[in-house]
Prior knowledge:
The complex is a heterodimer of chains A (about 120) and B (about 180). Chain A is mostly helical and about 120 residues long. Chain A folds into 2 domains: about 1-90, Cytochrome C biogenesis protein (Helicase, Ruva Protein, domain 3, Orthogonal Bundle), CATH 1.10.8; about 90-120. Helix content of chain A is about 70%, strand content about 0%. Chain A is built from 4 helices and no strands. Chain A starts with a helix and ends with a helix. Chain B is built from 6 helices and 8 strands, in the order H-E-E-E-H-E-H-E-H-E-H-E-E-H. An 8-stranded mixed sheet of chain B has the order 1-8-7-4-5-6-2-3. In chain B, a hairpin with a 2-residue loop joins strand 7 and strand 8.
Amino acid sequence: MKILNLLVIIIFLFNFNVSNAKDRNLNSKITKNLRCLICQGQSIHDSDTEFANSLKLVVEKKITEGMSENEIYEFLKTKYGEWILYDPALNQKTYILWLLPLLLFLIGGAIIFKNLKIKKN
Amino acid sequence: MGCSAFSKKNMKTKILLPFTIVSFLFIFFILYVGLNRSNIYIPETVTNEKIPTFKVKVFNSEKELTSKEIFENDIYYLLNIWASWCIPCRDEHPYLMELKKNKKLEIVGLNYKDKVKNANNFLNELNNPYTLILSDTDGTIAIEWGAYGVPETFLIYNGKIIKKIIGPMNNNLFKEIERAVK
């Protein structure tokens, strides 16, 4: 019986750690994708300003409240705007940002392809 | 064969030069525009957002209030985020004292990451413009408001944020608030 109890406790503790680690991973994943608005060029995760520290707490709170990653992004977007996200969504303002590299890639590919064809001929 | 290869090469150089010039101009233009643009982010100051819902502790007491209870009356509210360690807060303090005289306006303070003793010293020294002071010891309430520092001020009417002031108040902003609250 004692062994069984011990086993239950160990399993419980083990599970607890796993869920905690998951939360922490999610937390750092989210805070790495948030821009620190008062320290240019740093993410919330990297920054140690008052603002960043509070925001880390808020993210932690929202995770424990059961909000998903996207819900937290949406929540912060309504408060601070799109700028707070490092990974901007595709919209009217950002389509050049998203499509230009793809376009350049295609043009470059076409040039290489053409050159190769010429060489073969 | 040789002739066509030559013309092809010729055509290539013909295309290459304008292409290089155009792409150079394009890059130059983008960098030039980017150079003149400030990359310091400023959120929109004219909003019509609803006030956030939250629970908050009253300064120097154990009492808790919800956002609804705080902004329930049919008057203008000014939420001012301040701290005793914040130097610009001292600069804007006279404006808040002046606004306190306006009977249609109620000033609510949100004490941001501060020590009770220091905050009390600050108020004793410069007087207290607030009818109610809330306490935000870990800065999470300020995040709910979309604020990112101190001082920051929000003009609220009918459960909506009408105006947002980032940084200390100045004479122009003070007059703007006076005009709005009439």
